[in-house]
Structure formats: structure tokens, C-alpha cells
Amino acid sequence: MVKLTMIARITDGLPLAEGLDDGRDLKDADFYKQQAKLLFKNLSKGQHESSRLSIETGPYYFHYIIESRVCYLTMCDRSYPKKLAFQYLEDLKNEFERVNGSQIETAARPYAFIKFGMVLRSYMDIFHIQLLISYWVIAYLSLFRYIHTENQETVFGYQNPKEPCQV
Fold first, then answer.
1. Tens-place pLDDT, residues 76-120
2. Per the database record, which ranges form the Longin domain (predicted)?
């Protein structure tokens, strides 16, 4: 599940927007926010090898993408699929650029786009729902696979698929 999302300008490490899960189940939220801010400072100094990266941090992963001198970062549970995390960041980037693109370079204070936090929260909810749906689909399909295997055993009368059917 997505726990924290932050957007920062890479040229100076200035945080532009932030979205936090309701925070009830995130222990040490301030600690992880500080880690994210430290990461932004390091990225502003040119200390990054990749424009897409996942970083282990305790029971979570930080995933980020950098594009157009802006870093889009999210922190997720370790079990959260990386593909879904990066899709979330891509969608978020597109929306942030659409809404605030012309103002990014002129932002002078931290969290200048704090109102975008409401958009972040709705995106977090959407991707949480998508994750639940994908888990449900996998469970549902595996149920049919099991039923299908059971039916083959009943119809053909054997248990090892490599052994020929004896009539």
C-alpha cells in the first residue's frame, strides 16, 4: 500500500507537495519524511545514478522517478508491486505537470502546491483499490485453475498427467 508521496524540485531539493496515507498505521511518519527530504537534498547535489530507482528503507521501499527536474517519490509496503508503484508515479507526474507545470520553476516556498495533496490522496486511494482488485482477480483465477485440475482428474481417471489413461 502507498504510505507517503512527495514531490520535490531537483534543482534545489525544495518540497513542492506531499500526500500521506491517513497516518494511523504508519509508525515514524516524521522519520520517513525526513529520509525523503534528505534524499531530495542528495538528488539536488547531483547524487543520482538513475531517473527511476527503488530504495529499501526498513519495512518499506522508496520508489522515485525524476523527470523535467522534478522528483516524484512514493513510499510503499515491501509487498506492494513495483510495477504498480511506478505506474502510480507516472500518472501522478502527468497530473502534476498538467495542473502545475508552468509554476514549478517559480515556486519559492516549500509545499507551494499543498492543495495538490488532495489529488495525491485520491490517487493513493485509487491505486490501493487497484491493488485490491488485482489480488482478488489472482485469487479468483487460481480458484478456477484448481477447479480445472480437479475436473481433469475426474474426467480422465488418473492423477499423474504423464501417465496414460487406462480404460
1. 889 888 888 888 888 888 888 888 777 778 777 777 666 666 666
2. 6-120
What does the buried/exposed string (b/e) look like for 104-134 if buried means 16 or more CB atoms within 10 Å of the residue's CB?
A: beebeeebbbeebbebbbebbeebbeebeee
**pTM score, two decimals?**
0.69
d(CA 60, CA 27): 11
* CATH numbers and ranges of domains, the chain: 2-133 (3.30.450.50)
Specify the amino acid at residue 67: E
Pick from 76, 74, 77: which is nearest to 65 by CA? 74
- Provide φ and ψ at 147, rounded to 5°: -65, -40
